[in-house]
Amino acid sequence: MAVPPPADERPLVMLAQPLFPEFATALAGRYRFALLADADAAAAAEARALLVGGLPSVTAQHLDALPALELVACTSVGVDHVDLDACRSRGLSMTNAGAAFAADSADYAVGLLVAVLRRVAAADAYVRSGRWTADGDYPLTTKVSGKRVGIVGLGNIGSRVARRLAAFGCAVSYHSRSPKPSAPYPFVPALRDLAAGSDVLVLSCALTDETKHMVNREVMEALGKGGVLVNVGRGGLVDEPELVRCLREGVIGGAGLDVYKNEPAVPLELLAMDNVVLSDHRAVLTPESIGGVLEVVIANLDAFFSGRPLVSPVEL
């Protein structure tokens, strides 16, 4: 095992926000840290790497405060909380969590899909409230197996969702920026067409200027009154007020949502809908995934400071 260098020789890593406890314990002794909001001029001038834990907003002003900055290392998969234009203009390198969250996110997406189609949360509430005894059986719900599932974004997460649902006998197709030559599923160039040919639409792509509000009323109308929307990507992928209206009006049949436009705020109307399953942006989070992200972060920082290729670079 490598012996950590003396404290005064450890590289300085600037922090966008305080480290998670698991990260602080594992990284202690490897690097020196300074919190961006509290850093003195000497630390700001020295820092070559910025570690962005969680999803704090990182603006051009933050980046400009670090003149020696070369690397922005994110602990998330999505990087829409960082000013990417500023990173490009500075020629900065960026890393993310890579595939560390992919399996857990895919599991969760399938769980949301099952929960919405089979109304698991609503049936649970029905039993707990005593209505099974008072009113009889909960109404029948639709099956999962054999459903047509459209996946938006066939990357690390989307490809794993596809494999899991294929085991259910679902007919999988996908939409992305370009076809994936190795994918065994049909590629659909237009999102509206994907929605029209699907019973369930699963969102697992990045939030960019191009994908913001990509799921609008037209797409939801194409998905149809029996259709279900599952979102484990970013809240901004969906026109959220229109989603609420479409659910209220029966334009689509239900939704499984782990992400929202203005977290932690959730549209109040969704709370009363028994055809909607809600969670608090935790599809990615398990003890195992946190450990995996920590390994990726350490590998990226070690590679950067030793001049080796980054482990999970993000193309800007």
Set down the secondary structure blueprint:
Layout: E1 12-15, H1 21-27, E2 32-35, H2 41-46, E3 49-52, H3 60-64, E4 71-74, H4 84-90, E5 93-95, H5 102-117, H6 120-128, H7 131-135, E6 148-152, H8 156-166, E7 171-175, H9 191-196, E8 200-203, H10 217-223, E9 228-231, H11 240-249, E10 254-257, H12 268-271, E11 276-278, H13 287-306
Parallel strand pairs: 1-2, 1-3, 3-4, 4-5, 6-7, 6-8, 8-9, 9-10, 10-11
Outline: elongated
User: SSE string, helix = H, strand = E?
Assistant: EHEHEHEHEHHHEHEHEHEHEHEH
Kindly name the structural category.
alpha/beta
Strand order of the largest sheet: 7-6-8-9-10-11
How much beta, percentage-wise?
5-15%
User: How confident is the prediction overall: mean pLDDT?
Assistant: 96
Radius of gyration: 22 Å
Helical content stands at 25-40%
- Helices, by number, come to 13
Biggest beta-sheet profile: 6 strands, parallel
Number of strands: 11
Give the termini distance in whole angstroms: 35 Å
Low-pLDDT residue spans = none
What tags apply to this protein structure?
alpha/beta; 6-stranded parallel sheet; 5-stranded parallel sheet; 13 helices
Can you walk through the features of this model?
With 316 residues, this protein is of the alpha/beta class. The protein has helices at residues 21-27, 41-46, 60-64, 84-90, 102-117, 120-128, 131-135, 156-166, 191-196, 217-223, 240-249, 268-271, 287-306; strands at 12-15, 32-35, 49-52, 71-74, 93-95, 148-152, 171-175, 200-203, 228-231, 254-257, 276-278. The protein has a 6-stranded parallel sheet. A 5-stranded parallel sheet has the order 2-1-3-4-5.
